[in-house]
Amino acid sequence: MKPEWDAAEPWDTRPGTISSTPEAVSDTIARRPMPRIIAPAVALIALATLTGCARSRITTEVKANGVWTRTDSFSGQEKKEGQMTPSIDDIFVLPAGADWKSNTLKTDKDTSMVFERTLHAGDSLKGDLSIKAGEDKLQLTNEATVRRVTPRRFEYTEILSWKGAKGALDIKPDQLDQIKTALPKPLATDANVRSLAERMTGMVVPVMFGPGDPLLALGLMHPDLAERRASQRVGTVMMKALEDQFGSQMTVDQRREVVRRLIATSFAASRPAEPDPSAGPPDKSSGSALTPLMFIVKTPGRVVSSNGEVDEFTGEVYWALFPEAASLKDVMLTAVCELPQ
Q1: CA distances from 200 to 207, 237, 331 (A)
Q2: What pTM value is reported for the model?
Q3: Element (DSSP H or E) covering residue 206
């Protein structure tokens, strides 16, 4: 299936369709506010240096009477002098206020700070997931709403908005060179290469960062499988992009070869070095590292529609992603449930 998103609209992550963006990481990931998101040049291995980094799990449980409970869990390392990985406080602005109940759970590996709040149908909740991009700036914020759309139906909506640096289309010369090399010489003009790079960037963002199964995470354990998944998910859309841009100037076989080369290059071109321990801890003022996010919705009835993934065993809907999924446009998560008669 091929996603057809309007660039002016939020990502509408439809079931069974995923798109994404390879990103280039030339510096240590933990030291910069936002990775450069361009095709090709994906640095999946670099994420291995982030084991133990902070992550969040946001759970929305809707009751039959319209009351909904929001449970925000932030897990990671406590702040310690000289540690290499960012702490929970380095990454998140934690929920605060009298409406929130909180507790802390500790294990040998990490700490989880859990916050819970009760709301009612029609209420909106803003900023309970706020990711930092330095001391006084934000990278990502959210707004969640649960409303009753009919006497027996409730709709959950959550919008994730990028507040960080708008550098997603800051395409590097070597990345343009890779695309230029892949194109037939008569078509490899600077204008064509730039246009194709920007088009491809918009297509591949969700594949790399989610929602869905982010290939950025899969590439850590099985890079070859990640490359195969990229071919499955992105290949057809990239073929369409080439057809739209060049029409009959390229044959089907030529388009297929260009796509094959670009996908292969994405997973082989960039292998950044691990952090240098002698350099000391990361500069916290430069922003957060890649941060795993999980959103879960528990419903009082059957799920009628959703752009998330439905767990048939639990009846829950979930979305897995990284904040950079919203770097080009807002990400919208939606689910509609219906009460039993």
Answers
A1: 12, 9, 18
A2: 0.77
A3: helix 190-209
